[in-house]
Amino acid sequence: MAVEWTITIEGKNEFGDTFRKEVRIGKTWERLFDGDLGLSIEDGKKIMEALQNAVVNHEAETYSLYCRVCPDCHTFRAVKDCTTRRIRTVFGTVKVRNPRWMMCSNCYPGMVGAFAPLKEICPDRATSELMELTAQLASVISYRQAANVLAKFLPVEPTETHATVRKRTIRVGERIDDQFSNEEWLATRTMEERHQLEMPLPGDRRKEFVISIDTAHVPCSRSRTASNDPNPVSPKPLVHRQGDHRREMAPVARTCRSRHP
User: Fold this and answer.
1) What are the tens digits of pLDDT across the range 70-84?
2) Which residue of 54, 89, 166, 240 has the fewest C-beta atoms within 10 A of its own C-beta?
3) Domain assignment of residue 185, given as a range
């Protein structure tokens, strides 16, 4: 072995669990004599597949452990069973532990049920990145060519053929259609609520008028009150001109803008 590389990855979660993985890549003298310098595509596949295996397993364990804690009483849920689940990613297929937790007996007494945390975040047994990448390739080239490109540059399984690409593309398209339908429905409901809250306004500047305030300070002496004052002082009314008409308006307590139909 002429050259050997060792790549180490370490991970740690909030629960204090640590994970360590080493990947070794070697190169023989024959490959060096042939001018094979640097990492090849196959070397990159091997490295990324090993690193992805370590990262996905550690993250899946962390998420499953987080979901085991009841958010209400903060106690551990009971274990229903534990199986394995294969998750397809951009950098290979990873086999992870797939536990199922029972419903909390303290918060839901008398109710029996179980759920799998990994099924909630990965319902298609494939990551969202792989689904989107497959759909993007299939939208510009044929399904068979898209499958060949994925197998050429990514460590995917040989079982992922053009039929798999077609199914993923159709599934992504259905989800996009559902998302647009939900957005249109929410936009319609929002407009209906706005129409109910907004008051119809004429939008004609000639039908608008402005009410201004003209206030006056009334001094009051201790010897004479307003009840025995023969000439009390009152606020002066404001005369408002609109066109050729002359109107008198009584003083009000504030200034406002209004519109009338």
Assistant:
1) 988 889 999 999 999
2) 240
3) 127-195
